[in-house]
Design brief:
Layout: H1 6-11, E1 19-20, E2 23-24, E3 26-27, H2 38-50, H3 61-81, E4 89-92, H4 95-110, E5 115-120, H5 129-135, E6 139-144, E7 165-171, H6 183-192, E8 196-200, H7 204-207, H8 212-215, E9 219-223, E10 234-238, H9 240-243, E11 256-261, E12 266-268, H10 282-295, H11 300-318, E13 324-327, E14 347-352, H12 357-366, E15 369-370, E16 372-374, H13 379-385, E17 393-397, H14 404-422
Parallel strand pairs: 3-15, 5-6, 5-7, 7-8, 8-9
Antiparallel strand pairs: 1-2, 4-10, 9-10, 11-12, 13-14, 14-17, 16-17
């Protein structure tokens, strides 16, 4: 393991050294996308410059080398998430594509008139809209409410899950509040009723990780770009027996068996290729594998403690500002308090009384502070949380390379912006 040296880590992210409007960049929009270490960029550059060829198809050396790197990336992902078989790892363009694939496939396979699918109030649009689209009028979409602490009220799951529940699709960690879902309880209830469990791990994968077999879910989706990897990459993991039944969402090259296409029918390839139509983002997959290797150089518990401390300091400093409200934190500002990152990921959503979130975000930007504002692609949850007239929330989200000084700078910048807006 590498020693946790924050300055050495930051040196591997050149973008953190740039200025914005003449001020040092403080990048606190990591829940939207993380920055990429130079190792990831160089790995992808090297592949493009030396080993660029379409995978699986051709018989020449470059194609063989590219294929070997692409499939090695699959092995890296499988080991990272604890997959039982490498064939259970399907590369996609991101968590959104993965969730659309599983929603469409499961609704076609399992959901009929009178059936239901259960999601939670904490979901990102990517785990709401695909189910609406895939279900149509065939079944009922039921919503598990979120409690005052920002967590899905899993103790109420028994009220929603019944013998007609086909799927429970739920987030591992809220992109708005950083609140973790009690997934073990979700799996327990769903299993008792024979429902399939789909987990959106887009936020959870980078802060808490996962072992999919220990978790006991049936599908798990995540994006590479929130994991210090490139955009346009993602993973759908699923149990082999379900993946083999899942209807392909796309048809084309690569997802068919050799000599498997006629004008009357087609024979699909074996897993995982039957679900990976067309030329895959093989360069991106190799970049994602490098990001996983890079993150694996650090002690996960040490990273979690660092990120938990960042959130704790951020909440404490922000709550010193009159009229500022942090959503989901304990009243004492301890960020739900464990100090180990297990209760809340390093995400802080807040508003200031009488201030529109977009106005606040723009003034923070002018001071070099990058945050996200609005409904955060989680409109139902944010609209429940926010006070009228705020235009959503402000969200600061931290990562491995952020410092305590930066979150203090955030609070100072918020205070200055509020003074300008309210004078």
């Amino acid at each position: 393991m590498r020693p946790f040296d924050i300055e050495a880590i930051r040196a591997e992210f050149p973008i953190l050294g740039r200025t914005v409007y003449g001020r040092p960049l403080v990048y606190l929009d990591n829940a939207a996308t993380t920055q990429k270490p130079v190792q990831v960029v160089r790995t992808m550059e090297d592949m493009l410059l030396r080993v660029n060829a379409n995978v699986h198809r051709a018989g020449h050396l470059l194609a063989a080398e590219a294929t070997e790197m692409y499939e090695a990336a699959r092995d890296t992902v499988a080991a990272f998430i604890g997959a039982g078989e490498r064939e259970e790892v399907v590369f996609t363009s991101g968590a959104t594509a993965a969730l659309n694939m599983v929603a469409r496939g499961l609704c076609e396979l399992l959901v009929g008139e009178g059936d239901n699918v259960v999601i939670s109030e904490a979901e990102h649009h990517s785990n709401i809209v695909p189910w609406q689209m895939a279900m149509g009028s065939r079944g009922e979409l039921r919503v598990l409410p979120v409690g005052a602490d920002g967590r899905p009220e899993v103790e109420r799951l028994e009220e929603l899950v019944d013998e007609r529940t086909r799927v429970v699709a739920i987030t591992q960690c809220s992109n708005v509040l950083g609140a973790w879902t009690d997934l073990q309880r979700v799996v327990e209830v769903a299993r008792r009723h024979g429902a399939v469990v789909v987990v959106d791990g887009a936020q959870g994968i980078v802060h808490g990780g996962v072992n999919v077999n220990e978790l006991g879910c049936d599908f798990y989706a995540f994006s590479g770009h929130k994991l210090y990897g490139p955009t346009g990459t993602g993973v759908l993991w699923g149990r082999r027996e379900l993946l083999e039944r899942l209807p392909p969402m796309m048809g084309g090259g690569e997802m068919v068996a050799p000599q498997g296409v006629t004008f009357t029918s087609s024979i699909f390839a074996e897993l995982p290729y039957r679900l990976e139509a067309g030329t895959p983002n093989y360069v991106g997959a190799v970049g994602l594998a490098e990001a996983i290797r890079w993150l694996g150089e650090f002690d996960a518990e040490e990273v979690a403690r660092h990120e938990a401390k960042l959130r704790e300091v951020a909440v404490a400093e922000l709550l010193k500002i009159n009229g500022l409200k942090v959503y989901g934190a304990d009243p004492d500002g301890s960020a739900n308090g464990s100090g180990d990152g297990k209760n809340s990921a390093p995400i802080v959503a807040f508003n200031v009384e009488g201030v529109h979130s977009a106005d606040l975000g723009q003034l923070l930007d002018k001071q070099g502070i990058a945050v996200r504002t609005g409904t955060l692609c989680a409109q139902p949850l944010v609209e429940r949380l926010e006070e009228k007239g705020t235009g959503g929330v402000c969200r600061a989200s931290m990562a491995i390379y952020n410092t305590e000084q930066e979150v203090v700078m955030l609070a100072q910048a918020v205070r200055k912006a509020v003074e300008m807006l309210c004078r």
